[in-house]
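$ ./design --mode recover --in tokens.txt
reading tokens...
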């Protein structure tokens, strides 16, 4: 553009100095225009660079004021549009964070396990209850365990049906979770915000214990009916025999009355054991920890079973460790435990001895009570009660079942001496009510050791309960 002007200057008449001056002016003007253009380009470059930097900062979620754009209408409009989009995006991001926190809180508060899968069936989200149900505490790879659960055939079938039908579906399945067979009620609901499904929600309900309790109740009713039917049928047969033979047949009358008396005693024992079992299983029952003098307990138990032990020529022994003269526990439950254990040993021991031992022991605390600031040693005192006999013992195949209700090892026994099959179930629940466990060691033909272990509580004593009352309906009386 300036080239014709420069050529015109050289054609103009005049001195060389005049032409040189004009040329210098033109060169200066050209340099000024170039500098101005370069400055504008640098300013535009800096503004664009500031805009890019601002966009990057906004993309990272950090608030930042937009850059100042000087004397450029289009760039100012661009910045305003970008600012509007950024503000709207920030509002949506905050709303999503709030909704995500709502979802996380909802999942955390649900009592049922929940797992969310992506369309490929891979777990992407789960709550605490799902982790507790499916993952062992020592499992180093919890996500892999969740993937293995979602990859099981029954789970895949349910998710496939739910995705195909686009509606929730519920199925009850039996799965192996770890080493435990579990029965789960699985509800699968597709997540479809648009046309294509974005995932699926699995709601799990562990019904294993529920079904076991239903089965236990059914078995309990059947077993109780059977145990009641047998003595009632015998009593009825004896009464009919008396009616047919007449009261003058004293031999038949005495034999039938003995049968009636034995089965009435068995019914009385059964009813008492049912009441004891119900009380030990009642979660509302108050378990009282109080000092118990073991010498007084020994005298009471000795007087209760002395006659029965003498009749069978058995030596009933008691051994109390020097530091275990006084123990902490629920007196009613302790006496109930002793009554059932010794009665059971007397029934199945024909020669030798029955020995009852008490001792205290200190062990590392299993469940430290953080609210109890007085215990800083990390240990706890436990009471160990052992009842050892030299009876027939328990076969290995029966050891895991003797604590079941109405389960009896020696099924050949009859009458009241056979027992109700509830004694060890009562012992188990009574010890558990005091926070303890029962251990069983037995050898067939050599004898059995029943070991009951429970902690010595330091908790405040609850209000006193009524005095202890033990049933006198026992073969030892």
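writing sequence...
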């Amino acid at each position: 553009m300036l080239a014709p002007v420069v050529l015109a200057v050289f054609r103009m008449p005049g001195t060389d100095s005049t032409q040189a001056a004009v040329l210098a002016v033109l060169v200066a003007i050209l340099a000024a225009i170039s500098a101005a253009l370069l400055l504008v380009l640098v300013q535009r470059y800096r503004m664009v660079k500031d805009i890019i930097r601002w966009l990057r900062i906004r993309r990272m979620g950090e608030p930042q004021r937009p850059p100042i754009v000087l004397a450029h209408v289009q760039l100012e409009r661009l910045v305003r549009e970008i600012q509007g989009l950024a503000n709207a995006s920030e509002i949506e991001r905050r709303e999503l964070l709030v909704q995500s926190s709502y979802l996380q809180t909802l999942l955390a508060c649900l009592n049922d396990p929940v797992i969310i899968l992506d369309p490929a069936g891979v777990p992407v989200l789960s709550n605490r209850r799902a982790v507790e149900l499916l993952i062992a505490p020592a499992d180093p790879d919890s996500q892999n365990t969740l993937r293995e659960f979602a990859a099981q055939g029954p789970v895949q079938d349910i998710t496939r049906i739910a995705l195909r039908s686009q509606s929730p579906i519920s199925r009850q399945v039996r799965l192996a979770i770890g080493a435990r067979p579990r029965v789960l009620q699985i509800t699968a609901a597709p997540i479809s915000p648009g046309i294509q499904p974005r995932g699926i929600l699995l709601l799990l309900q562990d019904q294993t214990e529920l079904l076991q309790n239903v089965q236990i109740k059914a078995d309990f009713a059947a077993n109780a009916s059977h145990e009641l039917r047998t003595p009632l049928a015998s009593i009825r047969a004896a009464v009919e025999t008396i009616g047919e033979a007449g009261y003058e047949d004293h031999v038949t009358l005495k034999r039938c009355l003995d049968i009636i008396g034995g089965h009435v005693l068995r019914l009385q024992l059964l009813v008492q054991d049912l009441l004891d079992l119900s009380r030990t299983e009642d979660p509302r029952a108050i378990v009282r920890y109080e000092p118990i003098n073991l010498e007084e307990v020994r005298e009471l138990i000795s007087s209760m079973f002395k006659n029965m032990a003498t009749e069978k020529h058995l030596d009933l022994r008691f051994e109390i460790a020097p530091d275990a003269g006084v123990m902490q526990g629920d007196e009613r439950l302790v006496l109930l435990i002793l009554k059932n254990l010794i009665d059971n040993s007397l029934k199945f021991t024909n020669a030798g001895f029955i020995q009852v031992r008490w001792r205290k022991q200190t062990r590392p605390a299993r469940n430290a009570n953080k609210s109890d600031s007085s215990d800083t040693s990390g240990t706890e005192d436990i009471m160990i009660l052992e009842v050892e006999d030299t009876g027939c013992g328990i076969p290995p195949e029966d050891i895991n079942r003797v604590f079941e209700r109405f389960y009896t090892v020696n099924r050949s026994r009859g009458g009241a001496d056979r027992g109700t099959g509830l004694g060890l179930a009562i012992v188990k629940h009574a010890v558990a009510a005091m926070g303890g466990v029962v251990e069983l060691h037995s050898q067939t033909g050599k004898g059995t050791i029943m070991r009951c272990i429970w902690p010595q509580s330091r908790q405040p004593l609850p209000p006193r309960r009524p005095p202890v009352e033990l049933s006198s309906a026992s073969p030892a009386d």
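exit 0
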